[in-house]
RNA sequence: GGCGCCUUGGCGGAGUAGUUACGCAGCGGUCUGCAAAACCGCGUACACGGGUGCAAAUCCCGUAGGUGCCUCCA
């Protein structure tokens, strides 16, 4: 299996340290607000990576974190903690905010049929591990203390700028310079922030350096190492994390251990809404709830994600989400054929060959649009050319395993419903159109649609 | 200001030198008792200007426009 690697800037073969086991760490959400459609694109893509690894017989060990403390409103380690800010906004404690939006996020994962990570880990549950890691960095001389916290000295880490191909000199005009003159370098980042003197934080802990809370970056390193070891196989996240968060993770992890932190880095590009990026300031974020309120299935969202490549900056709009919903219905109608024996059993496509091509496309840097085209070909012209219900029933779980669009959650119709279809055929043979239409309406009420074809009646769930 | 990326038909989106991608929408038609979310066909797309090639949407240079990061953000 091949995947683009941000570290090497090329498509690399995936070669885990201890095959068939493969370790994956995904940067999860900061739970201070609802997740929006852009977040979901990201996480569905990560889920697709896991599914494809499994299909390639890897034994996946997947960890996703929940950032519930320490993520400030500015990456320059200034501004408010997002959780504390959310708490103020809603008149709750930071703990309540974290709990509420964590639950909402996990619910969204279920709605989108995402696989469950082996571990979902919270930053606040791993304060001691983070403190320990900061201590290791301190012992090795990578830290310094200023009035508001313990900082990492990026200039001591050789190759700090390499991962993101940062031009540090060119950046000095940017906002990171002006803030906090105590920092030795604009790129230095907080490992531990001290609690303010004048106010009481909801979330704070004791540490060797004083009461406070961990910086955002250290949690991912500490938790990744705890659950997956000091070197992991694949680290994933949004493309925006390359210049700061992931650059810092590499710096602090490799400085502490002297080992490569992650061998493979996968980054999901951002999606655009109406040609613009999603941002708080543009107020153009879309929640999963808005999708379902419009009567669109979360599975259509999932299919829509797969219709573009994860490294391209794709467009989201409602028209095309509805297009995905229509396509999904066609796929479902095909899946329903696994229970129906048509008079002809000729296949439109050689499923064995198509499945190989399908899996190859998925395994080639997750070329989901190509894979979908192959799958789509398998579902076409069934009525004219016939369909082999046995072949379809064997194919459904394989496709579903990789795409996760709900193809498998479709049971056969009941015996009573089958009787109605048979009865309607009798009526039709007798040209009793009133009765046959009535029976068709009855089935429609039960969510079953019918198509009369040369192969006989075909049912599908509406 | 620094560092990138992109520009394909109504919308989205593959392809990356020689083959009508595909999906949805639209139009026309077929099948059907009617119906269909079924089938067939159509619109003959690749920002613009140069260059290299037998051949370029696909490679190179330039221009225009858009857009991302550096600053909240997946």
Topology:
Elements lengths: L1 E4 L4 E4 L7 E6 L10 H19 L3 E8 L15 H9 L3 H18 L7 E4 L4 H13 L3 E4 L2 E4 L15 H4 L3 H4 L10 E6 L17 E3 L1 H13 L3 E7 L3 H16 L4 E7 L3 E2 L2 E2 L10 H6 L4 H9 L8 E2 L1 H19 L14 H13 L4 H12 L2 H4 L3 H15 L11 H15 L3 H13 L2 E6 L2 E6 L1
Parallel strand pairs: 3-4, 3-10, 4-5, 10-11, 12-14
Antiparallel strand pairs: 1-2, 6-7, 7-8, 8-9, 12-13, 15-16
Helix pairs in contact: 2-3, 4-7, 4-8, 7-8, 10-11, 12-13, 12-15, 16-17
This protein binds one RNA strand of 74 nucleotides through α1, α5, α8, β13 and β14.
Question: In words, what does this structure look like?
Answer:
The protein is an alpha/beta fold and 462 residues long. It is built from 17 helices and 16 strands. Helix 7 (216-228) packs across helix 8 and helix 10 (298-306) packs across helix 11. The model is unreliable at 172-177 (pLDDT under 50). It binds one RNA strand of 74 nucleotides through helix 1, helix 5, helix 8, strand 13 and strand 14.
Oligomer: single chain
Query: What is the mean pLDDT?
Result: 86
Q: Could you give a short account of the major beta sheet?
A: 5 strands, parallel
Strand content: 15-25%
Strand element count: 16
Structural class from helices and strands? alpha/beta
Low-confidence stretches: 172-177
- How are the strands of the largest sheet arranged? 5-4-3-10-11
Give a nutshell description of this structure.
With 462 residues, the chain is of the alpha/beta class. It contains 17 helices and 16 strands.
């Amino acid at each position: 299996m091949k995947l683009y690697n941000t570290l090497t800037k090329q498509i690399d073969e995936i070669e885990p340290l201890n095959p068939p086991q493969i370790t994956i760490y995904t940067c999860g959400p900061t739970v201070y607000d609802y997740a929006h459609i852009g977040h979901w694109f990201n996480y569905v893509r990560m889920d697709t990576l896991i599914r494809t690894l499994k299909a390639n017989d890897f034994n996946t060990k997947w960890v996703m974190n929940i950032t519930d403390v320490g993520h400030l409103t500015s990456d320059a380690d200034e501004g408010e903690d997002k959780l504390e800010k959310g708490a103020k906004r809603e008149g709750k404690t930071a703990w309540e905010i974290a709990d509420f939006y964590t639950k909402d996020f996990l619910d969204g994962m279920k709605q989108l049929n995402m696989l469950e990570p082996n571990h979902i880990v919270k930053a606040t549950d791993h304060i001691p591990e983070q403190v320990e890691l900061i201590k290791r960095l301190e012992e090795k001389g990578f830290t310094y203390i200023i009035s508001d916290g313990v900082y990492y000295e990026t200039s001591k880490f050789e190759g700090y700028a390499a991962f993101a191909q940062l031009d540090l000199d060119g950046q000095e005009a940017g906002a990171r310079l002006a803030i906090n003159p105590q920092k030795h370098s604009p790129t230095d980042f907080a490992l531990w922030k001290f609690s303010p003197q004048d106010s009481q934080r909801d979330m704070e802990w004791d540490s060797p350096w004083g009461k406070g809370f961990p910086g955002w970056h250290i949690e991912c390193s500490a938790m990744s190492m705890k659950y997956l070891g000091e070197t992991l196989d694949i680290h994933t996240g949004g493309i925006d994390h390359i210049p700061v968060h992931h650059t810092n993770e590499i710096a602090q992890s490799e400085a502490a251990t002297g080992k490569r932190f992650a061998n493979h880095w996968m980054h999901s590009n951002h999606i655009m809404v109406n040609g613009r990026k999603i941002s708080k300031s543009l107020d153009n974020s879309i929640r999963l709830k808005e999708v379902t309120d419009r009567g669109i299935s979360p599975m259509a969202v999932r299919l829509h994600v797969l219709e573009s490549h994860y490294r391209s900056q794709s467009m989201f709009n409602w028209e095309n989400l509805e297009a995905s919903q229509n396509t999904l219905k066609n796929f479902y109608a095909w899946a329903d054929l696994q229970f129906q024996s048509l008079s002809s059993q000729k296949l439109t496509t050689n499923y064995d060959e198509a499945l190989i091509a399908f899996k190859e496309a998925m395994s080639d840097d997750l070329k989901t649009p190509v894979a979908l085209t192959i799958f789509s070909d398998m579902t076409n012209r069934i009525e004219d050319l016939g369909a082999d219900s046995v072949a379809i029933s064997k194919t459904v779980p394989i496709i579903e395993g990789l795409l996760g669009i709900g193809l498998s959650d479709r049971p056969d119709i009941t015996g009573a419903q089958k009787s109605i279809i048979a009865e309607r055929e009798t009526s039709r043979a007798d040209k009793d159109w009133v009765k046959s239409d009535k029976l068709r309406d009855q089935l429609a009420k039960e969510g079953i649609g019918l198509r009369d074809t040369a192969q006989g009646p075909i049912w599908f769930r509406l």
